[in-house]
Amino acid sequence: MGFKKLLASLGAGGASVETVLTEVNVVPGGVVQGEVRIQGGSVDQEIEGLSVGLQARVEVEGQDQETKQDIEFTKQKLGGAFTLQAGQVHAVQFGLEIPWETPVTSIDGQQLRGMNIGVTTELEIARAVDSGDLDPINVHPLPAQQAILDAFIQLGFRFKSADMERGHIRGTRQKLPFYQEIEFFPPQQYRGLNQVELSFVADDREMDVILEMDKKPGLFSEGSDSFRSFKVGLNDFQGTDWAAYLNEWLSQVGSKRNWF
Residues with Cβ < 8 Å from 253, sequence gap 6 or more? Predict the structure, then answer.
């Protein structure tokens, strides 16, 4: 499966770049593979560097407004400097690792609106840098993440929305400068509850699962009984009834607040 984008030519008679992704469906901790093809122009050119990376468009909360910001959260150089002769085609294959914390963009085949994550290509030539358009990738949940998501669906929750926010969730293993929130509408039995927000922060062994009810904008109120964080092993999650676990916690919080 190929996904092609053509970068803008670097000046009259300059080189152009095309990035082809072998497969756009990946999981956190996986690898996206592809090839960068540089087509020489009408003159020889000195290529100072070539790199690929992953970029996400995240929300940044200000005092009075919310803005969007493109953040490159991993980068890989592809070789060193070289001379690209006129008319020459220079192809470089790559395998770009997907960080374990990378947000999911697709759940059960459904694309999550607003989740813009993809591969960027950067060509350095003649002291100039040309960055191409984003080549989108589809990041699917890990099996352990899918188990938690399935539990919410089993309890009757409905997907509301998802976003990526710049910032840090305190008390987690988070290393990236942003995190994802997946929001659900509750079923009728949890009357009085507006929504539940879910975040995953994973590494190669386990993940932090963060749940919050009645969230205040911009704050994770860890001292509140509406906040819960627990760890799930990526390879030993099957032994827990996650729907029962989540229902017990939600019921406890709801009874304390006289919601249910």
Answer: 213, 225, 226, 259
